[in-house]
Amino acid sequence: AVVLDGQHGFAKRADGFVYNLDIGSGREPPFGLTLALKEAREHQRAPSALALQSTSADGSLVALAAQWQSSLGMPVKPAAPPLNQFQLLLAASKSANLLTGEFAPREAMGKWMALLKPSLVVLALILVAHVGFTLIDNWRLNGERLALEREMTQVFKTAFPSAQAIVDPPLQLQRNLQQLKRDRGLPAESDAQMLISRLASLMQMLPGAAPAITALTVRDGAATLDAVLTSAEQRTGLQRAIDRLPAASVADIVSNPIPNTTGGDTKSSPLAVRITLRAGA
Questions:
Q1: Smallest Cα–Cα separation from 23: which of 2, 38, 47?
Q2: Distance between CA atoms of 124 and 130, rounded to whole angstroms?
């Protein structure tokens, strides 16, 4: 049985299953009805005939049944059921509320969402504002960085016009400045570390026990180290090493003998020396 009601309708199978249909403006059968009949034929459950019924008495049901019979390839006959029965069925199908039982919305959750909605809106606005201000700050800082890089590059080109590639202007400027200082005999920032490292290596090369260091100064590109040697062999080895280093010198500070209070021969004092090492040695 197929019941029509304007642009809507439903088809009811013999087992009570109901299809809701949308009726087009033409006289062709609904697409949903065509699919339902195709499925029924595939499962060997095709109806023997369709009973076409309508809630309106417009007199066109006979012509529509003939058109559907030709299109569907099965008998379609008009029928005239009691109007009130199908009107009640259609009204019930249109007004049925499926959100019942387990599918009913939770009222408590709805109330909480209604209470939290203003706070969520405020949080969303704060988040959007924070992201916007962050993007603006990043854009401003990026502009300042680019301006500083352009300025540093211009300063580097002015100071060193012969430079071919400029990759890191601050680092290249610092290196070139240190090289200029070395070329002109001026102390560079790295000279102090280099001089101290060389003096430490010099002390480690001496034979015997390690000498005691009493003072260390670095000034004007020169390092001065005062140490107390433990033996004459150390003094001889130190002198040989100093002779191999340009711009380096060693001088004795104390070499007075100390009388032996217990009697016997006098005893020599520890050998105190001053080592001077200049940059470039």
A1: 2
A2: 10
Whole-number pLDDT of residue 59: 62
Which of 113, 38, 98 is CA-nearest to residue 74? 38
Task: For the chain, state the CA radius of gyration.
Answer: 53
Spatial contact of 17 and 36, defined as CB atoms under 8 Å apart:
no
DSSP H helices, the chain, are 31-42, 61-72, 83-95, 107-159, 169-183, 191-204, 232-243
Q: Which residues contact 54 (CB under 8 A, 6 or more apart)?
A: 3, 4, 5, 61
Reported as a single tens digit per residue, the pLDDT across 158-215 is 877 777 777 787 788 788 887 777 677 665 655 677 888 888 888 888 888 888 889 9
Please list, in sequence order, all residues whose beta carbon lies within 8 angstroms of the beta carbon of residue 198, skipping any fewer than 6 positions away: 277, 281
pLDDT at residue 120 greater than cutoff 70: yes
Q: Which two tokens stand for residue 163?
A: 């430079």
Output the average pLDDT for the chain: 78
Question: Tokens at residue 272, please?
Answer: 């105190």
For the range 229-237, what are the long-range contacts, defined as Cβ-Cβ under 8 Å and sequence gap of 24 or more? 229/270, 229/271, 229/272, 229/273, 230/270, 230/271, 231/207, 231/271, 232/271, 233/207, 233/208, 234/206, 234/207, 234/208, 234/271, 235/271, 235/273, 237/205, 237/206, 237/207
Show Cβ contacts of residue 281 under 8 Å, excluding neighbours closer than 6 positions: 198, 245, 246, 247, 248
- CA pair distance 1, 6, nearest whole angstrom: 16
The length of the chain is 281
